[in-house]
Amino acid sequence: MTMRGKIVLLTGAAGGIGQAIARRLSHQGAILILVGRSAHTLNALARELDLQKNKGFTLVADIATHAGRESIRTALIALPQPVDILINCAGISLFGLLPNNEPEQIEAVINTNVTATILVTRLVLPFLHKHSGRILTIGSSFGGLGYPGFAVYCASKFALRGFSEALRRELSDSAVQVAYLAPRATNTSINNSAVCALNSELGNAQDEPELVASVAEKMLSSTRMRDRNIGWPERLFLRINSIFPRLIDGALRKQLPVIRRYAQSSSASEASSAPPAESNATTSTRLS
Ligand SMILES: NC(=O)c1ccc[n+]([C@@H]2O[C@H](COP(=O)([O-])OP(=O)(O)OC[C@H]3O[C@@H](n4cnc5c(N)ncnc54)[C@H](OP(=O)(O)O)[C@@H]3O)[C@@H](O)[C@H]2O)c1
């Protein structure tokens, strides 16, 4: 499927992976609706990509709020044609041992990554192209492998993987395709300094967001979308974990002292769960 002229609604568009996906799809000629909380970042991206050239626009909306989601619905009602592709990319992370996770942080992760993503998908569904609509949800390798220090984030991504799989089957007698993309660690600001130091000490590979964007584009362009996990040996670990989870228990048990050390040093102030001050408004910036 060519991206040229396709209407793509992308959440998390101001983030590292979101911006990389936006650049990639824009260069392929897609018409982008960029959803995010930071008007400043979205506007800079819109100028860089010259969004107005092909009737794309930005939408400042906090998807974790009713008002934010309603502003998306309002924008979709005003569209002259159906949405071709929804990319659920918005997400937040939380690194720390469970007793140190504040209840508000736990609620924010589940609300943003799971509830808000499901509600956005539900509201976009009626606006999706009946004959060729596609829904791509950005999960994580932690959506298939429970990792110490990320219990809540893992719970949210496991939930998204189940959601995507069930929805794919629910829509299997329609022309709408649904898929889940699981990146491994990627170089964006979602990972605080403790996570980066942990990955470095454990020798965990870290991809650039452009790699994730290129895989997303390949999935969206293929005739039949299939779920994808990025990275080797992550794919192997995920496979072993689904068949012999005790083997992975043993491997992670050896990493536990290192994970504990960094999880304890991961300060609550670095948790990327708070929206920027400017995001209180839900405004749509139509560029054309
Ligand atoms: N980077 C990794 O290591 C990695 C690995 C696997 C999966 N992922 C997944 O990839 C996706 C993109 O993450 P990223 O790495 O690009 O991180 P990022 O740079 O922090 O981007 C995440 C984006 O989501 C947005 N967002 C968060 N909560 C939102 C809300 N309530 N309403 C609207 N937008 C919201 C953020 O907005 P603000 O800019 O306003 O904060 C941010 O722009 C996430 O789903 C993440 O879980 C990332």
Which hetero compounds are present in the coordinates? NADP nicotinamide-adenine-dinucleotide phosphate
What about the largest sheet? 8 strands, mixed
Global mean pLDDT:
93
How far the N terminus sits from the C terminus, by CA atoms, comes to 26 Å
Please identify the top-level CATH class. Alpha Beta
Count every beta strand, where a strand is a DSSP E run of 2 or more residues. 8
Note the total helix count.
9
Q: Which spans of ≥5 residues are poorly predicted at pLDDT below 50?
A: 267-288
Helices and strands, in order, run as EHEHEHEHEHEHHEHHE
Structural features:
single chain, 288 residues, alpha/beta, Rossmann fold, 8-stranded mixed beta sheet, 12% strand, globular, disordered C terminus, binds NADP nicotinamide-adenine-dinucleotide phosphate
Molecular structure report:
The chain is an alpha/beta fold and 288 residues long. It has one domain: 3-Layer(aba) Sandwich (Rossmann fold). It is 45% helix and 12% strand. It has helices spanning 16-27, 39-49, 66-77, 103-124, 151-170, 193-202, 209-221, 234-243, 245-265, and strands at residues 7-10, 31-36, 57-60, 85-88, 134-138, 177-182, 228-229, 283-286. Strands 7-6-5-4-1-2-3-8 form an 8-stranded mixed beta sheet, sandwiched between helices. The protein is globular and about 55 Å long. The chain starts with 6 loop residues before the first strand and ends with a strand. It binds NADP nicotinamide-adenine-dinucleotide phosphate. NADP nicotinamide-adenine-dinucleotide phosphate binds next to helix 1 and helix 4. NADP nicotinamide-adenine-dinucleotide phosphate binds at residues 11-12, 14-18, 36-38, 62-64, 89-92, 112, 116, 138, 140, 183, 185-186, 188-191, 272, 275-276, 279.
